[in-house]
Specification:
2 helices; two-stranded antiparallel sheet
Length: 263
């Protein structure tokens, strides 16, 4: 009996000598290899070019237009790509004193169905006519049985119409910060992937003497993760990267003129 009691008391004595803080438990989700681990890549320095049009210069003599084409890459180290639901990118030119004039890509809708949907509706109508024949001999005497005759006719009409397939937004874009920046929201679809490199074009309006500055590029990737049978919104990664813009001047290559061969 004493040996049995000592067997039960031994774990308690060991735990009192070793504090609970010394026991390291595995983190929840550490064995979940499907959880995405993503990273973004944005250039630290980028060249932009002057695209001022004569019409813009006539209306804004103290301004110029500069075009920035920013490559942004999303890299999935491991995990399921299908768990990355959307990616949000923001290019903010407020620190450089820039205002958005134009941007691309614009909001884009797409559908998984290539052809219109045919919808058929059938309407049925039932028409009937009935008559009853009887006789009455006295106020309180009736001749029975009565004879009832009736006819019925059913008609049906079918209407077929074509409907456009439903679409969902795969790219949503717009301006932020009083038109000092542009945001892009890219959603995963069956026809595209969020992995890889994409190009984002922004045309800024800048002062006429502007020749460069720093903008911020903010990237965010999101998805859903199940926890206790409930899907929770999660941020897989988000970064803020300063990017230096340098204005390049237009250079036109001179045509090569071939000299006549000397005799």
């Amino acid at each position: 009996m004493r040996s049995l009691l000592a067997l039960f008391l031994l774990p308690a004595i060991w735990m009192s000598a070793n504090p609970a803080s010394a026991i390291e438990l595995p983190q929840v989700g550490s064995f979940d290899t499907s959880t995405p681990e993503v990273a973004f890549d944005v250039p630290a320095t980028l060249a932009c070019r002057d695209v001022t049009t004569p019409e813009f210069l006539a209306a804004n003599p103290d301004m110029r237009l500069v075009e920035v084409v920013t490559p942004v890459s999303l890299l999935l180290f491991h995990g399921e790509a299908g768990k990355v639901d959307d990616m949000i990118l923001e290019i903010d030119g407020a620190a450089a004193g820039l205002k958005v004039h134009d941007y691309a890509p614009r909001t884009e809708l797409a559908s998984d169905l290539a052809q219109p949907i045919e919808v058929k509706e059938t309407t049925a109508t039932d028409k009937s006519i009935a008559a009853t024949i009887g006789a009455k001999l006295a106020p309180d005497v009736c001749l029975t049985p009565t004879l009832t005759a009736g006819t019925s006719k059913a008609e049906s009409a079918t209407v077929t119409r074509s409907e456009l397939p439903p679409k969902q937004a795969i790219i949503v874009s717009g301006t932020t910060g009083g038109r000092s920046g542009v945001y892009y929201k890219l959603r995963r679809s069956s026809q595209s992937t969020l992995e890889g490199e994409r190009l984002f074009r922004v045309t800024f309006a800048a002062p006429a003497d502007w020749d460069g500055g720093s903008v911020e590029v903010r990237c965010l990737a999101r998805g859903e993760k199940k926890w206790l049978f409930v899907d929770q919104r999660r941020v897989w990664n988000q970064t803020t990267t300063p990017m230096e813009l340098r204005l390049v001047s237009h250079t036109t290559a001179k045509p090569v003129v071939e000299e006549p061969a000397k005799e």
